[in-house]
Design brief:
With 455 residues, the protein is mainly alpha-helical. Helices cover 71% and strands 2% of the residues. The chain has helices at residues 19-24, 29-59, 65-80, 82-90, 95-115, 119-148, 152-180, 183-205, 247-256, 262-277, 285-304, 309-333, 339-370, 377-384, 386-403, 408-436, and strands spanning 214-218, 227-228, 451-454. The chain is globular and about 55 Å long.
């Protein structure tokens, strides 16, 4: 394995490479390169679905707005089960065939969407689609965690860039179909999403199942070389840990739910706040998504360096809370000025919340891996993946029903609560990391230096 720097921090000597160079030679080699292409194709299909699904359900299947809301709400709840289910299965079976199965499952369900014409028939079909979607995302990251080893944060950054590029491409293709506006055009977009799963499954088939050999890198005094312990697989076997009985890990997952609210702010909070509470022009709404997409594609790799390893990951938690507070303060201030002031402040809020997203997207997964015991990592990461799914279901109604209803004060309260949650989560992570590696207490470093990595 590649040893990290003193204090358990991973080597980032390759961080100066450009995006294209790192995509050609990502952490994990050939397997990771193929998976990144599969991920981009998968997300291209997701862009097609996101841009066309509501209109398809309205104009082709004839569902009402209320029925569509219920349909997508139930599907979102079903998606919550996808991550822990995939994690449990990945602890017993190889990841590669499970991921192929998820792609093929979504292929079947989307074909059924094209032939189902009633709300009752579509409800279970769309719910299973969302469950498969969340399961696939968890399996993709678990595959990367095993293939990329201690450089998983760098791979996560590359995957975020590839995902956003693919999603943007899919949305652009969807715009052509939506401009045509016929029922056949809508069906073609849904079919395009289904075909993306075929391509992704074929690419995953070309990979090899990554083998995981854990090596524990414990903390050491500043400036000293890290202590490399014996592989975990060589230690006496013990009863496998259960994430549902691990209160420390469940606390991390619970606190991680509000640490994903940037997603709802970008997709729901900013547009609705602009329309209902400020004098900024509505034409500004697409700019929020443009800013978000471009910044993620261009900056994710460089920002990810701030979240690699235990020290940086825990510091990134605090930075996320600070950025979210600033974003919420900007949103509150957007109501205080005229059109020009509101426009500038909202654009600044979009920029700041995207910076928060860039930080969270890497640090959250890095900590989920570091805090999980090696012998049950798949099951633990499956539970950790629930935080994003729960936020996707609870975040929008929280913003519309409570935060925005309270006016500017609601945003200030939200920002304060998220910042407070970041402090609590960081302290909880520090305590758990030190518990997992008591030898880290011997070092002079103020932050945890326990690092359980894959090689």
């Amino acid at each position: 394995m590649r040893r990290g720097r003193g204090g358990g921090e991973p080597d980032t000597s390759q961080g100066g490479e450009g995006l294209l160079a790192q995509l050609r030679n990502p952490p994990g080699g050939r397997n990771a390169r193929i998976m990144l292409l599969a991920l981009a194709l998968d997300r291209t299909g997701s862009g097609l679905w996101a841009a066309s699904s509501a209109l398809y359900l309205t104009f082709v299947t004839g569902l009402s707005a209320q029925q569509i809301g219920v349909l997508l709400g139930v599907a979102g709840v079903a998606g919550i089960a996808g991550s822990p289910l995939a994690g449990r299965l990945a602890g017993r079976f190889p990841v590669r065939p499970l991921l192929i199965g998820c792609h093929l499952l979504r292929l079947v369900t989307l074909v059924l969407v094209l032939v189902c014409g009633s709300f009752e028939a579509l409800l279970p079909v769309v719910a299973v689609t969302y469950l498969g979607d969340r399961a696939a995302k968890m399996l993709e990251m678990l595959f990367a965690t095993r293939a990329a080893g201690e450089r998983r944060a760098a791979y996560q950054a590359l995957s975020r860039s590839a995902s956003n590029a693919g999603f943007g491409l899919g949305a652009g293709i969807a715009a052509i179909g939506l401009a045509v506006g016929t029922a056949d055009a809508y069906r073609a977009l849904i079919l395009g999403n289904a075909l993306s799963f075929v391509a992704a499954a074929a690419l995953v088939w070309r990979t090899k199942e990554p083998r995981e050999q854990a090596v524990e890198v414990t903390g050491a005094p500043a400036g000293a070389a890290p202590v490399v312990a014996s592989p975990v697989s060589e230690r006496p076997s013990a009863r496998r840990a259960n994430p549902w009985r691990d209160r420390g890990y469940l606390t991390f997952v619970l606190l991680d739910i509000p640490m994903n609210l940037d997603d709802s702010i970008i997709g729901v909070g900013l547009p609705l706040w602009l329309v209902n509470s400020t004098s900024a022009p509505r034409a500004l709404v697409p700019a929020f998504l443009v800013i978000n997409t471009v910044m993620v594609v261009v900056l994710q790799i460089s920002v990810s360096k701030r979240a690699e390893g235990p020290r940086r990951a825990t510091r990134a938690v605090l930075l996320y809370g600070a950025l979210m507070f600033v974003c919420c303060a900007f949103l509150a201030a957007a109501t205080l000025g005229g059109t020009g002031v509101a426009t500038a402040v909202l654009l600044a809020a979009a920029l700041v919340v995207t910076l928060a997203e860039l930080m969270r997207s890497v640090s959250s997964w890095e900590l989920a891996v570091l805090l999980a015991p090696q012998d049950a990592r798949a099951a633990y990461l499956g539970v950790a993946g629930m935080s994003q799914s729960i936020q996707k279901s609870a975040g929008p109604p929280l913003l519309t029903g409570a935060v925005m209803a309270a006016g500017p004060a609601g945003w200030l309260v939200l920002g304060t609560l998220v910042a407070g949650a970041s402090v609590v989560q960081r302290r909880a992570c520090v305590r758990r990391l030190r518990t997992l590696s008591p030898s880290a207490e011997e070092g002079a470093a103020p932050a945890p230096a326990s690092h359980t990595a894959t090689a």
